[in-house]
Specification:
binds NADPH dihydro-nicotinamide-adenine-dinucleotide phosphate; 20 strands; seven-stranded mixed beta sheet; six-stranded mixed beta sheet; alpha/beta; about 475 residues
């Protein structure tokens, strides 16, 4: 097995093996080859991980913020030094093209450790003048946080959660998706090497049952999940029983609106980035592409011509644009929607089927797919597919497209392409989405908050907003005179 870790879990600075939990395989999606085998944590191991986090958190929170920041920035350097090796591991575990993992996975996690490592010592609390007495605030950690990740950006998700959580003085127990167990273990090793005390970042492998054990654990103070809407509801309900703080980064069916004055080449680039990056497995993807009727024909022609030129193949070849889907289950789901779109009467203008890739007969390959003449009521227009399937709609005016763009239970992201700056800002202000792009799509710099409205989530990752998700404010009143008491 090409990527077998030393053991399944990383707790209190060392690898630990599980004896109770079920075994599961990690597969290379390009070939279906087993690359590693780990065991899911059950109650005893979850207890060990949480107890270790409680111990580590006390030591970590007692350090000055500037020292915690220095250690996190050292972790960022180590992530960058090992970017190639981490990217290759991520490509093996996810099947995503190395061209992408080299720039968007460990590199994004590194940015996050840099940003929060630098930010934390600069945060200052409030002094509030009360005319003699005064009050001040202290921002304090929450304690032990649980992070649960999806499979599309394993190390990025671990970094986006761990960096702000640790910067604020918390410890984290992280459970990667069972489909992609490997890179979070490497992050745990790197954090120890950078100087984070033992127990501050533990990784336990597991399935939904492991997730439930973590979320329901009485010593856990906060849960941050990246996953689907149904899992988000379950996690929020269980966390709610213990009144635990919860952040949820969930799914989407985001709109991308292209007005008639947009630069056509840029708009096509935006639509492709919004649908085909990571083989379409991105929560914020702009899968509903609304194109002004007057440019729709030209737009679709250019889009098809450029999509035809995409290189699908060996994910480890840096010339490859698109790798396979993550798993058999995702492959079956995406193919189902590709067929459903045709059955629903949408116009299939490109793809719509499996892709044959020489030398990779057993991988989960599909073609990038474009449907035009999609009606708002079709299931392909309403349900999250999480694969490279773009739906193109026509529209005539701004009010109409804003109403149609917002007509969804999701609210993760949205994009607008136009050269009219007043229209760009006006439209973005009316779109019910937590993250919006003007004249680009799917860029997520760590400095910018990211997260969803409506059913797409609660709370924000990245930016200063993430500090709110991992800390709590204490208000302290200080008397300056005698106590005024009526008794
Ligand atoms: P899932 O919701 O299936 O799983 C997410 C994580 O939750 C996994 O680690 C999973 O474990 C775990 N889990 C499952 N059930 C429970 C439970 N009852 N209690 C606690 N944890 C549980 O999502 P996927 O992994 O399939 O990821 C795809 C989804 O994630 C898409 O909907 C996508 O939109 C969303 N996503 C959102 C992002 C965002 O930032 N908004 C970013 C990336 C993806 P296991 O893997 O073992 O099932």
């Amino acid at each position: 097995m090409r990527a077998q870790p030393e053991a399944s879990h990383f707790i209190h600075g060392v690898y630990r093996e599980e004896t109770e939990g079920p075994e599961f395989d990690s597969l290379y999606p390009a070939t279906g080859e087993v690359i590693a085998r780990v065991r899911a944590a059950r109650a005893a191991m979850v207890n060990v991980a949480v107890a270790s986090a409680q111990t580590g958190q006390k030591e970590w929170a007692a350090m000055p913020a500037i020292e915690r920041g220095r250690i996190l920035r050292r972790a960022a350097e180590l992530l960058r030094e090992r970017n190639r090796e981490l990217s290759e591991l991520e490509t093996l575990d996810t099947g995503k093209a190395l061209q992408e993992t080299l720039v968007a996975d460990a590199a994004s996690a590194a940015e996050c450790f840099d940003y929060f490592g630098a930010l934390i010592a600069t945060l200052s609390d409030e002094h509030i003048d009360l005319g003699g007495p005064f009050a001040y605030t202290r921002r304090e950690p929450l304690g032990v946080c649980v992070g649960i990740g999806a499979w599309n950006y394993p190390i990025q998700i671990a970094g986006w959660k761990a960096a702000p959580a640790l910067a604020c003085g918390n410890a984290m127990v992280f459970k990667p998706s069972e489909v992609t167990p490997l890179s979070a273990l490497k992050l745990a090793e790197i954090l120890i090497e950078a100087g984070v005390p033992k127990g501050v970042f533990n990784v336990v492998q597991g399935d939904g049952e492991t997730g439930r054990l973590l979320v329901g654990h009485e010593a856990v103070d906060k849960v941050s999940l990246t996953g689907s809407v149904p899992t988000g509801s379950k996690v929020a309900a269980l966390a709610g029983e213990g009144l635990k703080k919860t952040s949820l980064e969930l799914g989407g069916k985001s709109p991308l609106v292209i007005f008639e004055d947009a630069d056509l080449d840029d708009a096509v680039s935006g639509a492709m980035l919004a649908n085909f990056y990571s083989t379409g497995q991105i929560c914020s993807n702009g899968t509903r592409v609304f194109v002004h009727r007057s440019i729709r024909k030209a737009f679709v022609e250019k889009l098809v011509e450029r999509t035809r030129r995409m290189v699908i193949g060996d994910p480890m070849d840096e010339a490859t644009h698109m790798g396979p889907l993550i798993s058999q289950a995702q492959y079956d789901k995406v193919l189902f929607y590709m067929r459903l779109g045709q059955a629903e009467g949408a116009d299939l203008v490109y793809g719509g089927d499996i892709a044959e890739v020489d030398g990779f007969a057993d991988g989960w390959w599909v073609k990038p797919t474009i449907f035009a003449d999609v009606a708002d009521s079709m299931r392909i227009a309403r349900e999250e597919i999480f694969g490279p399937v773009m739906c193109v709609f026509d529209f005539d005016d701004e009010d109409e497209v804003v109403a149609r763009a917002n007509d969804t239970e999701f609210g993760l992201a949205a994009g607008v392409f136009t050269k009219d700056i007043t229209r760009a800002h006006r439209v973005v202000s009316r779109l019910k989405a937590g993250t919006c792009w003007i004249n680009n799509y799917n860029l997520t710099p760590v400095e910018m908050p990211f997260g969803g409205m409506k059913k797409s989530g609660i709370g924000r990752e990245n930016g200063k907003a993430a500090i709110e998700s991992y800390s709590q404010v204490k208000g302290i009143y200080v008397e300056s005179g005698p106590v005024d008491c009526p008794y």
